[in-house]
Amino acid sequence: MGGTEQEKMVIVVREYEEEKDREGAELVDRMCEVGPSGAIALFTDLLGDPVCRIRHSPAFLMLVAETTSPEREIVGLIRGCVKSVTCGDKGPRRGGGAVPIYTKAAYILGLRVSPSHRRLGIGLKLVQRMEEWFISKGAEYSYMATDNDNKASLRLFIDRLHYSKFRTPSILVHPVFAGHRLPLPRTATLVRLSPSDAESLYRRRFSTIEFFPRDIDAILHNPLSLGTFLALPSGAVFSGIESFLADPPTSWALLSVWDSKSLFRLEVRGASLLLRGLAWTSRAVDRALPWLKIPSFPNLFRPFGGYFLYGLGGEGPAAKELLRALCLHAHNMARAGGCGVVATEVAACEPLIDGIPHWRRLSCAEDLWCIKRLADDYSDGAVGDWSRSPPGSSMFVDPREV
């Protein structure tokens, strides 16, 4: 497209209309997800629902950028949601623990501009319109996640929109071995909690960590949440959540499992024939000789799904070992569910990170989160400027926005 024709083009940003825009939005997603020829890239199939990654949030919006001439064409899109999350605490409460301070935080994800229409200010216009909606919903902060090496994204958000680098959590991914289940250690006893018991535990012990969602009950009761599991030392008896909260064992660990496979599928493209062959060989040996317990590389070169682990935490000297047992249990759940991977995202300085099994080649040591303050007020108390605060040791990553 020539420069003169681009200059004459008028771009309209409006709210996404499912019946009219679905095909065009999917096309933009496909064009932007696949990397250049010869490079490994990750393609996302949203299974016919471009809003699936935000649909379960309490307030969400998707905008599209559309040309008005010579014919209407969707050339960009953006997704956003608003929720109340923890940004600090008010100090100790009676009976132990601290009182959380909540703020309304807005999250931007899935910003896409078709390659043929980049450098026209479309991304800037989409974000600005989304921020207007955030402010209308009472959001006090807006944040987004990007790769450290995504220079175009950093130029847009940091240089032009005045976001600042905020947190660098780690994305940890573990393949699901098709040929065998992973054995669980005998040193751990696993207990499945009801959603109401899980809510009590999360609110009592986790509600003051960063980004803890005020509506944790909605997440735990969502059909996509496949269960919350508590690990105790072998021989320990779980006699109810109130007894546990009143007198917990010396060590324990907790995590919940979210079914991302039902929302979207992923596919690795651009891998060499050698890498594909080695991966196929590992799977063949694993299926033929599962008793050898040979780690196999799953077939990530065709669409695959995954489970996301959220709300990870625990206490005590054996917490890492107990968390590892829970992750292995989640792997076996994912295997039964036909998944290719299990994944999680935790703070860079998460004290239990060594207890989370993962493959470095599939993981990302530093996912970059950037933040911008939209308003001076706080909905639930004051902590100063959260965007300038030092990181905590842990954080809560909402599975509804993965």
From TrEMBL:
Domain of life where this protein originates: Eukaryota
Alphabetized Pfam families for the sequence: Acetyltransf_1
Entries under SUPFAM superfamilies matching the protein: Acyl-CoA N-acyltransferases (Nat)
N-acetyltransferase domain boundaries: 11-189
Protein name: N-acetyltransferase domain-containing protein
Protein's organism: Dendrobium thyrsiflorum
